Amino acid sequence: MIIKKHPHIYQMSYSNNSKKIKNLVNNLNRFCFDSKNIQKLDLLSKIDANTPKIDANTLKKHKNIDVDIEKSNPKKMNTKEFFIPSQDDNIFWCWYIFQNGIKEYNILPNKYFIIEKTRKIDWVPLLRENKASIKQLKYKLSSLENNLVNEKKMHIKTLETICFLNCIDVYIVKNKMLYKNAHDNEDKIILKYYPETKKYGILLDTVDILKKINTYEEELFLVNNIEKPLKGISSYKLKNLQDIAEKIHIELKTTNSNKNKTKKQLYSEIQELLV
């Protein structure tokens, strides 16, 4: 093994074709003081410098938020099935738990922000290498990058893109809606939105996940856009709205006169329940 000296960096290289040595060198190069890693450290230091510090009491309270929620509203917060990460970027930490498991999440040190930002920055090259695939989702690369690097919270569309590039099916349950981006992949992630906390929970019990998905598809209104689930009222016929209303358990007749609700009435009630 040879150490090559450069003006500003020391980086390891190898002089034989040994697979073990090659893998070792590749792993060690991640920690070399080269231009790529310097750039990453510089970006992280700038991010960290602009981040307000959190005192120990606030952090302790922050970590226990899920316990408090469960105690105050145990019926609505089904934490046996869904776990709700307490961090601000709730969607990212759902992804982290999906990838690493709940046990790994529970033993993490209190360096959530650095872990979060490092992973997000690592995703940027992945997005750039897959521009053509991202076009299939009809999302803008610049918007996804901006969300990862500059914004505090990860968007659903960013999660969807990362999952798509990693061959993971995504299912989002929100109110009476189901959104999915599924391609019969073996790996599947299911998130559920809790309006009480404005946070998402991740399904932990995946033993009968296909059965759960079938239940969601039967009982919930399947939408093409989780942020804008309904088109304009002119896009629907009365029968379309009646079908949607029945799916999400909205009465088709008025309470007082027992007459069929109008198109406008149904649209308004569906919109209120979904949005």
Could you walk me through the main structural features you see in this protein, from its secondary elements to its overall organization?
- With 275 residues, the protein is of the alpha/beta class.
- The protein has three domains: 1-33, no CATH class; 56-223, Cathepsin B, Chain A (Alpha-Beta Complex); 233-274, no CATH class.
- Helices cover 48% and strands 14% of the residues.
- The protein contains 13 helices and eight strands.
- The chain has helices at 19-29, 35-49, 56-63, 65-72, 90-100, 102-106, 112-128, 131-136, 141-149, 156-165, 209-219, 238-247, 263-274, and strands spanning 2-5, 10-13, 82-83, 168-174, 177-181, 187-194, 199-203, 221-223.
- Strands 3-7-6-4-5-8 form a six-stranded mixed beta sheet, sandwiched between helices.
- A hairpin with a 4-residue loop joins strand 6 (187-194) and strand 7.
- Helix 2 (35-49) crosses helix 7 (112-128), helix 7 (112-128) packs antiparallel against helix 9 (141-149) and helix 12 runs parallel beside helix 13 (263-274).
- It is elongated.
- Mean pLDDT is 80; it is low at 1-16 and 47-78.
Write the layout of secondary structure elements.
Elements: E1 2-5, E2 10-13, H1 19-29, H2 35-49, H3 56-63, H4 65-72, E3 82-83, H5 90-100, H6 102-106, H7 112-128, H8 131-136, H9 141-149, H10 156-165, E4 168-174, E5 177-181, E6 187-194, E7 199-203, H11 209-219, E8 221-223, H12 238-247, H13 263-274
Parallel strand pairs: 4-6, 5-8
Antiparallel strand pairs: 1-2, 3-7, 4-5, 6-7
Helix pairs in contact: 2-7, 7-9, 12-13
